[in-house]
Amino acid sequence: MKIARIRLYAAPLPIKGGPWRWGKGFEMHAGTAHVVALDSDTGLTGWGESAPMVAFYLPAHDKGIPAVVAELAPHLLGLDPRNPAAVDAEMDRWLHGHAYAKSAIDVACWDLAGRALGVPCHLLLGGRRSDAMPIFRTIPQPPHDDLDARLTDYRAQGFRYFQMKVGGDPSAEAARVRSVAALLRPGESLIADANRGWRRDQALRFAHETRDLSLTFEQPCDSYDDCLSVRRRTSHVLKLDEAIKTADDLFRAIADDACDTVCVKIAKQGGLTKARTIRDICAARGLPMTVEDVWGGEIASAAVAHLAASTPPDMLLNTTDLQNYNDGEIATGAPTVADGCLIVSDRPGLGIEPVMAALGDPVAVYD
Ligand SMILES: [Mg+2]
């Protein structure tokens, strides 16, 4: 089997319920899903998606994806997409970095491999280890509705993990987190995610003012060294997200004992091939994970579900249903949600079919 044609689409992802606010005043009004279609010489097509949110979140941006696909396409045509690791190595050979853009190509290879073999991607990623994976629900930055009402609604839907976006004034955020913590019931967990929004002193002030609370403190500062410094001076469970981009980052964090849990995001790591490696290192080291993606619609959500389902259950803290953060639908067959958990598809590949009307005309075609 060979990659005979590469199509690239760009579809809007309107955010359900208005702008998304996090960190220190970060705001997103709409996302964009860049979708790669790999057409094989056998007539099968594989699909992958990458949605980097906004240009100031990670070293990633929407406009970079068409440029990366244009750069790599001549090197990818003719390769066998059933060998995602070989395609990934070839991408790295010809272009340094740009994990977010390579991710859509890599995920499309996994989808195509699954379709060609007639098996779901989770079987190729280690096997189905969970039937239902717990989903976390996010409480974004103010302004928003009543926290108590929001928590009650989430609880009624079966959710037990709640991630609060923090990053404003540390004392005000500590008070806000405290008010939510007081509403929690046994078996429920709270994560305060600063998305690298604080300086070291601010993160320490927040940690000090919440020191009696049981919570996970996620990516307090931008730099790894600042996160490590905070980690050494707080009793909170420390989770690293944006600081863990590569396997090298993870090896360093393990050597430094820099975190207790890790957030694995498919596009941040560079696709399912590299996310699987990060996932397996974390599992082998005993670091439990959130398995998710940066942002995205149904195709990204499906990839998340296959990676999460094939993760050892005792190493999987929670996952996400990204498609439910957006209005509209770019593909059918997304993982379903039942009683606060994500249910993966058993159909071949990712188990999705694109909604071509939502994707529109391709922005680029290479053959
Ligand atoms: Mg995070």
In the CATH hierarchy, the architecture of the largest domain is Alpha-Beta Barrel
Radius of gyration: 20 Å
- In total, the number of domains comes to 2
- Please give the share of residues in helix: 25-40%
Looking at the structure, what is the overall shape? Answer: globular
Quaternary state of the chains: single chain
* Residue fraction in strands: 15-25%
What is the name of the CATH superfamily of the largest domain? Enolase-like C-terminal domain
How many H/I helical runs? 13
Mean pLDDT: 96
CATH top level of the largest domain is Alpha Beta
Q: Enumerate the spans where pLDDT stays under 50 for 5 or more consecutive residues.
A: none
CATH topology of the largest domain: TIM Barrel
Cofactors, ions and other ligands in the entry? magnesium ion
- Order of strands in the sheet with the most strands? 7-8-9-10-11-12-13-14
Q: Could you explain how this protein is built, in words?
A:
- Strand 2 and strand 3 form a beta hairpin.
- Helix content is 36%, strand content 23%.
- The model has no long low-confidence stretch (mean pLDDT 96).
- It is globular.
- The protein has two domains: 3-118 and 355-366, Enolase-like, domain 1, CATH 3.30.390.10; 123-353, Enolase-like C-terminal domain (TIM Barrel).
- Strands 7-8-9-10-11-12-13-14 form an eight-stranded parallel beta sheet. Strands 5-4-1-19 form a four-stranded antiparallel beta sheet. Strands 6-17-16 form a three-stranded antiparallel beta sheet.
- It is an alpha/beta fold and 367 residues long.
- It binds magnesium ion (MG).
